[in-house]
Amino acid sequence: MFFFLKSLSRSVHDGEHHQEPEIKITDGIGTSTSLTVWRKSLIISCNGFTVINSHGDLAYRVDNYIVHPDELILMDGSGKSILTMHRRKKLGLGDGWLVFEGETSGCCSRKKLSKKPIWSVKKNINILQTNQNVLAYVFRGNTEKRHSYVIEGSYTQRSCKVVDETRRVVAEIKRKEAISGGVSFGVEVFLLVVQPWFDPGFAMALVLLLDQMFS
């Protein structure tokens, strides 16, 4: 399976190199990170995600034993927990999540972890049918006074972007429509393109939360 993913990643990135070369290089600031996201866990009995970098190496993974968990753990390629997301237990219409560094469960690792959330993410509820393009708001820490990022577009169509307060795009989710190397790409396999000034791990965490909110 992993060898299939490596070849899948190369097919995606080779196809993107010919069709959308602009996602590879930013405007004089540095090189963006392009990740192949597969909406499938490496463990057969789990739901989750497998993320491969442009070199064909395992970058991130997520293994969930239930479909809609209250906790999500993003691991790096070696299996180390780097971010943990907890569903916010709060009355209200919106689906909210708190993002912590490391793994927040388990007594053995508790001393190494931040006790306070570093980010909070809230689903946009469009009661008045305004800002229909906005999917979610991202706030620093546990406050919702002023958002730092906005996620716009359509996750179900795998076409959305994360923008900062100046409307600068920091990360994008792109659907792969082409057939390259005999592989047909649908909504289960897509691209996550992250600009060099944004953390790719946090960008992947936002993908996980969008999947919970809109799947």
TrEMBL record:
Pfam families: LOR (PF04525). InterPro entries: LOR (IPR007612), LOR_sf (IPR038595), Tubby-like_C (IPR025659). It comes from the Eukaryota. Belongs to the LOR family. This is Protein LURP-one-related 17.
